[in-house]
Amino acid sequence: MRISELGRTCEVPVATIKFYIREGLLPAGELSHPNQASYSDEHVRRLRLIRALIDVGGLSVSSAQEVIGAIDSDLPIANVFEIAQHTVSSTLGEFDAEPSGLERVDQLLLGWHFTPSNPGRLAAARVIGTFEAAGQSADRGWYARYAAVALLAAEADLDEIETRPDRLAQAETVVVGTVLGDLLFAALRRVAQEHVTSLRFGSEPTTSEIARDES
Amino acid sequence: MRISELGRTCEVPVATIKFYIREGLLPAGELSHPNQASYSDEHVRRLRLIRALIDVGGLSVSSAQEVIGAIDSDLPIANVFEIAQHTVSSTLGEFDAEPSGLERVDQLLLGWHFTPSNPGRLAAARVIGTFEAAGQSADRGWYARYAAVALLAAEADLDEIETRPDRLAQAETVVVGTVLGDLLFAALRRVAQEHVTSLRFGSEPTTSEIARDES
Fold it and tell me: How many other C-beta atoms are found inside a 10 Å radius of the C-beta of residue B152?
């Protein structure tokens, strides 16, 4: 197909497609005539992946370059994971975890296999430190329960990855799943909070209902 | 204590404290002399809460104003939750969920009690739509498993909230927990992914180890 059809199919402006090609995110089309390039279903798939990472996942163009480079490399899946994790950890904020916070995280995750530089380890130490500095405590095991929940999610992640037919498909799922999994959990937790709150605290009218009543 | 001591205690510049007072995030100190205000432990607690929301949680000043307004109101906890959820859902991205996506989310969460305007419902529809547009599928029940995981997290959230002694402390935990819970999960999932990957795919040397070997 021509670039205009690729753009219509993926709902991406042609100028944006050309930008992605210049930035090395998308391979150039195959020259079918001296000044006309042809694009395949592979381009459609890759373009949709790029949009998922940038538009919904919120990655910068340079972060998208890094993770797409990892997909297209021949690195083992474990390393693609590592690159995806480091690249998207900008969403976890800056890390200035204190040693005592790191010790606590290591204690919490005793028996797990991970490298000291895992960005999640550093971010978890910072989040727990911030939570407690704000006067909060985890009296009912909030941290440990979130660790258990994160382990279940990671098992679900890896189960999906294992169904993929080849290394390329696995690497794509690693990258997309790492980026979108955070958002999926955050979204579903909000619905679950409303559900559990209504079960425990009764069904107080919501502010939107109050607004409706008053209008 | 004086404002300078408040600043030292919380590691916040005095100019920033004055800005928070002007913006209504922090109550003014009590005037002990005509031109000297006195600050209490309540100010320390509130200032640390503000820093957790803005510095680590990434909220804007106006978002922090909204959720702190909800804490200081006499709204029922369910409504504080609703405000906290709507305020921090900017981290979930823009919502333009399609009706078919919303139907799928409702089917996925059948039996849960939630309002159609729950921001998580809209965001989940968008994330699932994006995941599939990027050529991905959930062959091993990824969505349903994340829903189960989100429900466990929400139970843990509400269990913590119930231990708090009064409405103010509950409302603070709702707000801080909503903001930091997303980050805690995202952080711990990264560690869990490395753990589960190493169990399943063996312990390939990580790229950081390769870099060390080559240096």
Answer: 16
